[in-house]
Every structure is written in C-alpha cells, then in structure tokens.
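hey can u check if this looks right to u? its 300 residues, i copy pasted from the old doc so theres a chance i mangled smth
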Amino acid sequence: MKAYLKWIVLITWSFTMTSCIKENLPECIPDNTGIVLKFRYPTGTNTQSNKNGVDRLSVFIFDDKGIFVSQINDSLIWIDDNYELELPYKQGSYQFVTWAGYNEATYGITTCIPGQTHIEDFFLFLKRDTDNRVTDQPKLLYHGIHETVALDEHEKMIAWINLKQITNHIRVIAHNLDKDISHNIYIEDNNGKYGYSSLFAHDDPILYIPVYMRVAKESNTLTADFNVMKLDKNRIPRLQIVDETNTVYYDENLIGELLGKNPNINLENEHDFTIEISFNGYSPIDIKINGWDIKESDEM
C-alpha cells in the first residue's frame, strides 16, 4: 500500500512539473512583484559584533497620505546587508518608518489604528518610572525611514532603508572621591521621545540611572555606565554627581562643556564615550574625553 501511494505522489509531481514547463501555468511562475525592504547600517558599523548589530525590528507602514496601514515585526534574526523583509503588498503607495532593535521592555510607541492614525501623531518614547527615572537602560536602537514609493504590479521593488543609531553608551569615571561618602552619578536630559522622522518631540526631563562599578570597596574611584538616547550639540543635558543626601557636588553641561570639547567627536557618527574626571575635593582638576585632555591640572 505504501509503495502504491509513493508511485501516485511521484506521478502527480511529474505531471505538475511537465505542465509547468509546457503550459507556463500561473501557479508555476515565480512571483516577481511586490516590495522587499533591505537595510544599511551607518558606514563603518561592525554588524558582526553584538555591540553594534540588532536582532529584531519593527516596520510601521503608512500610505501616501500618511495614514497608518500596518505594523510588521521580525525577531530572532540578524539584520545585515543580506537580510530581506518581504511585505505583503502588490500595489499601492506606501512609506515606511523602521525602529530596529525596538524592544517593548524599554520602549513604547503610540497606539496606531489602521486607517486612522496619522504619521505626524506617531511617536516612540523611552519607558521610565513614575518619577521620570530611567532604571532600565535603553537597548541599542536604530531608526530608518523611507519616503513614499509606488508599487509596480509588474515588477518587484527593492527599497533600501538607511539605519541611524539613536542610542549612546557613556562611561563616567570619577577619581579621588571621598570613599567614606556614598556617591551617585546621573545624567539628566529630555531626549526620551521621538517623532516618525526621529526628531525630538516634547518630553519631560528624565534622569538616567547607571550601572556602577567600584574597583574595590576602599577605592576612591567610581565608574558609572550609562546607555542614553540621542545626543545633540544644541541641547543641554547635565552630568551630576550627588551624595547620599542628594546634595549636588558636581553639575556640568554634558555636551557643551564635556563631550563637545573634544574636537574629534562627531555626535552624528560616534556613540561610545568615556568621560574621566579627577577631582580635588569636588573641583575637577583633570578631565579626559575619549582620552583627549580638555582640562589639565596646570590650568587651575
């Protein structure tokens, strides 16, 4: 009986393949219509490293009038030049907003209703506690956008979306702090909300809480690792050092007086920073930004 069924399957398959070759039936012709999205990281990004690449993305699809159509998520993948996302559309005009690395544990988006929500009302925001403290550090996040494309029902379109990194890593190393006093290091900014084009949207100030590392219990050096959202030279985030009573001992403009003092730093392309400050009391006597001296003790 099994042998008989095997012959039936083989005969049916052979007939189908012969029909495809001779008759050129529609079901035998590869579908070369629709649209495929491909993605590019910024030049120089090492996507082979878990530090720079992401393994999930969300694409938000709007029509040519800016009305929300649908959201497509993909995860457990690796986004590089070989990755393709085929969309289930054969005709029409669409524009695309991509958040690569989007993770609901740390980010939220506007509730989008198909046929109703307009792209101008679409926002991504960083989740925070009720007191606006960010205790769950933001995950690596990229943004991409593609202008409206009109699909051709006779051919498949490939749309390349350039990804731009939104998140930054900042390591703050504070030397010569009083080891008998408990200190905290914070970064305050209002960069937790973005429109569809990744421009800043109005938001309340948020306080980033780092992960701390002290070399030894008796050490007078405190290291704080931050993941923060987009930095911009025209904004004024603050770097603060406070004691256990929340008394502020150091409060400085993170960009204007620190990161921006290193002439080699371009906030558009660089996203990994080390700020090293040596104190005398609570007065900074030496400051290095990514190894570049911006304040030396002999200047004091």
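The chain has one helix and 22 strands.
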